[in-house]
Write a structure and sequence with these properties.
Order of helices and strands: EHEHEEEHEEEE
Number of strands: 9
Distance between the termini: 15 Å
Bound molecules: inosinic acid, magnesium ion
Number of helices: 3
Largest sheet: 6 strands, mixed
Low-confidence stretches: none
Strand order of the largest sheet: 4-3-2-5-6-7
């Protein structure tokens, strides 16, 4: 398997500055509750949170709809829940990538039941061609073609999360990952 750079560190950082400015301009004064979807969004969260200039709270949520390979298991489950209530809060879900939309449409349902003031989604990457469930993503970093990507938090079999660029993983057979 080989890696081909799709988005460089510089492109990613420049886009995140723009997203932070847009988020600051869109929300009324007051705190924003960032909900980071583990594990893939942890790098994006770290940079996006620092591009937002207002009071923020950071929460983590574990959701899994994928096995160890490249294809969805079709099954969504909460593997780690929030530590604090989001009732009355402006919630921004921070996700690495929207693919089928299965994960985020499920998560929107779960979080809306908790009576937040608002819930929006920020996703670094969007693969619109792959959508199975409609989901409104307010803040999108980059629309990308239907290719499997790794790096900047995204993994294949838990590998490659620490790459600084987003790369396409090439010549890989669809199936269980190495780990
Ligand atoms: P969805 O429920 O199909 O939208 O899946 C979203 C999740 O699948 C993301 O949070 C990622 O964890 C994973 N995923 C989807 N596409 C990719 C990819 O190209 N590389 C790595 N992970 C991916
Ligand atoms: Mg994920």
């Amino acid at each position: 398997m080989s890696l081909r750079i799709l988005l460089t560190e510089e492109q990613i950082q420049a886009r995140i500055k723009e997203l932070g400015a847009q988020i600051d301009a869109d929300y009324p004064t007051g705190a924003l509750h960032l909900v980071c979807i583990l594990k893939g969004a942890y790098v994006f969260l770290a940079d996006l949170a620092r591009a937002i200039h207002r009071e923020t709270f950071v929460e983590f949520m574990g959701i899994s709809s994928y096995g160890k390979g490249k294809t969805t298991s079709g099954e969504v489950k909460v593997t780690k829940d929030l530590d604090n209530s989001v009732e009355g809060a402006n919630v921004l879900i921070v996700e690495d990538i929207v693919d089928s939309g299965v994960t985020l449409s499920y998560l929107m349902q779960v979080l809306n039941q908790r009576k937040p003031r608002s819930v929006r989604i920020a996703a670094l990457l969007d693969k619109p061609e792959r959508r199975l469930r409609p989901v409104e993503v307010t803040y999108v970093g980059f629309k990308i073609p239907d290719e499997f990507v790794v790096g900047y938090g995204l993994d294949y079999g838990e590998k490659y999360r620490n790459l600084r660029d987003v790369c396409v993983l090439e010549d890989g057979a669809d199936g269980p990952g190495p780990g």
